[in-house]
Amino acid sequence: MTSPDAPEPDACPTCHALTTTERQARAAHDHSRATDYRVLLRRHLDTTHPARPFTP
Predict the structure, then answer these.
(1) How far apart are CA 38 and CA 19, in angstroms?
(2) Which of 11, 16, 20, 27 is most buried, judged by most C-beta within 10 A?
(3) Among the listed residues 50, 55, 1, 48, the one whose alpha carbon sits nearest the alpha carbon of residue 19
(4) H or E element: which one contains 9?
């Protein structure tokens, strides 16, 4: 399951790192860690890429 607001891999190194780590945590069935990284990605998107529309 990919987040609908997952950034393009080349768009931002921080976005890419957070998305990659979230996917690794999900693959390892570490759902708490995966959620943590989704929250960090959402915060990063909201603060660093504010022009991006919110998609719940």
Answers:
(1) 7
(2) 16
(3) 1
(4) none
